[in-house]
Design brief:
pyruvate-formate lyase- activating enzyme; about 40% helix; binds iron/sulfur cluster; alpha/beta; Rossmann fold; six-stranded parallel beta sheet
Length: about 475
């Protein structure tokens, strides 16, 4: 059977999908000069090939099928599997329609089609509902699914074949130029675990299947295979909570070193799942960047959303230690929790600049279908275009802030964080205390200018919005 795997490129700005926001995807439509620049860099460094399709390719090729791959052109085939997203579903369904006109059987995979099948079912022959591998194995056996087809999560992740990057990616991951830790083209995603054992009610990473891990042996075998085929690969661990199990992480570091693998990698985790000893070992094994959620400066707001707050002193300690080791840090923040108002978001922006991670990503609280937060906010939804559930657009009626105010605060956060001398000093990893003190003094002057410019709409002295 000829099977086409479609990881479609958006025709409207850069879209991250596959494992981004659990697979719902994210699109930054720039709304300021700073976000225009960030969108540009995202396009260069975040366009990584799909690990879901690479694993599907391995399953299908193992069964002897002819696997083809496309990012948008129409390809001859018998069946096409399309990676779904929420933020670009119109482009995906339009492509599916064109392929169906050519007689190709179409199936969608991914969380968006699983949780919002009504957006896709008029444009396909089947939807693989759940993690895709079980459904893809059925297809590999020659049984083409029909309609909404349940796909149970694979309990033993070690039983899956390693992703076949040669079948689903061009050469973009081989370019050596780096902006921070990531090379152009992004690197190779790897899933060492799936799901998350935490309970953040807004998070899509925990709603498809439970938390499962691969054995260290299986992960290192996959890394070794990558190193054999690509010199010094950059690996992006896409686990939602990479360092959940400390001993397993240490074991992984030891295994990478004992096999003499030369690679660098990044991972996403919670800061309370890191300590300085673990960081030292991870760095020695190749860790060069970490990302983590801070979300809000207010612990009570976090608790209301099922998220366990992390002590600020620990957050600072980990970030300072990372920067000493030369590890790039990226912190995520969310605006628009129901408890948020002007002063709480102002406090979160202040906290973000003070914490001083290398990068910060500010996003709008978005209720994704299937999450507990979606059920809570469904009566307040005002946005009817699902593509606008992109992480940057207000989608529900907030009790304290209008959509315009939320967007304004989001823009202000990016400007305050990135147009700041100490941002550049952190980016360049300047540790010299004389320079850092000088830069901090310059920061205060620039910050005052930002505040004066934003003062008509953004009153920092108010405890709550009038
Ligand atoms: S810790 Fe992160 S990945 Fe886990 S549920 Fe919370 S937001 Fe999601």
């Amino acid at each position: 059977m000829r099977v086409v795997l479609a990881d479609l490129k958006s025709d409207r700005g850069f879209v991250g999908k596959d494992t981004v926001v659990g697979g719902f995807g994210s699109r930054l439509d720039p709304f300021s000069r700073v976000t225009r620049l960030i969108a540009h860099f995202k396009r260069q460094f975040h366009d990584t090939p799909s690990v879901q399709l690479a694993t599907s390719a391995a399953i299908l090729a193992r069964a002897g099928h002819d696997v083809r791959w496309t990012r948008g052109s129409l390809v001859e085939g018998d069946v096409a599997l399309v990676l779904s997203s929420l933020v670009d579903y119109r482009n995906e369904t339009a492509w599916a329609d064109r392929m169906r006109e050519r007689g190709v059987t179409i199936g969608f995979i991914g969380i968006a089609a699983s949780k919002l099948p009504r957006l896709f079912e008029g444009h396909c022959d089947f939807i693989v509902n759940g993690e895709p591998e079980t459904g893809v194995m059925q297809l590999a056996r020659g049984a083409v699914p029909r309609g909404m087809t349940p796909s149970d999560p694979v309990a033993d992740l070690d039983s899956l074949p390693f992703p076949r990057w040669d079948l689903v990616s061009g050469n973009q991951a081989h370019l050596g130029f780096k902006w921070s830790a990531r090379p152009v083209g992004g690197g190779y995603p790897l899933l060492a675990s799936r799901g998350c054992p935490e309970f953040c009610t807004y998070c899509p990473h925990r709603i498809v299947a439970s938390y499962r891990t691969r054995s260290v042996g299986s992960i290192v075998d996959e890394l070794e295979r990558l190193c054999d085929r690509h010199p010094r690969p950059y690996v992006i661990f896409r686990d939602p909570l990479f360092s959940e199990q400390r001993d397993r992480c240490l074991h992984l570091c030891d295994a990478i070193r004992s096999r003499g693998l030369t690679l660098t990698f990044e991972a996403e985790t919670r800061l309370d799942r890191l300590d300085t000893i673990l960081l030292d070992r991870l760095h020695a094994a190749g860790l060069r960047a970490i990302s983590f959620g801070v979300e809000s400066a207010d612990p009570a707001t976090l608790r209301k959303s099922g998220r366990r707050p992390i002590a600020p002193a620990h957050q600072r300690e980990i970030i300072v230690h990372c920067h000493r080791k030369g590890i790039v840090t990226a912190a995520f923040y969310v605006f628009g929790f129901l408890q948020d108002d002007w002063s709480s978001i102002a406090a979160t922006i202040e906290y973000a600049t003070e914490l001083g991670s290398t990068f910060a990503q500010f996003k709008m609280l978005t209720p994704y279908p299937g999450t507990p937060m979606f059920r809570q906010l469904e009566p307040l939804l005002v946005e009817t275009d699902w593509e606008k559930f992109d992480g940057y657009t207000p989608t529900f009626r907030h009790p304290n802030l209008s959509a315009g105010e939320l967007r304004y605060l989001l823009g202000a956060a990016y400007t305050r964080f990135y147009v700041r001398p100490s941002y550049f000093a952190t980016f360049l990893n300047i540790q010299n205390s004389v320079v850092r003190n000088l830069v901090r003094r310059m920061d205060r002057r620039i910050d005052d200018r930002h505040k004066r410019a934003q003062a008509p709409r953004f009153d920092y002295r108010e405890v709550s919005h009038p």
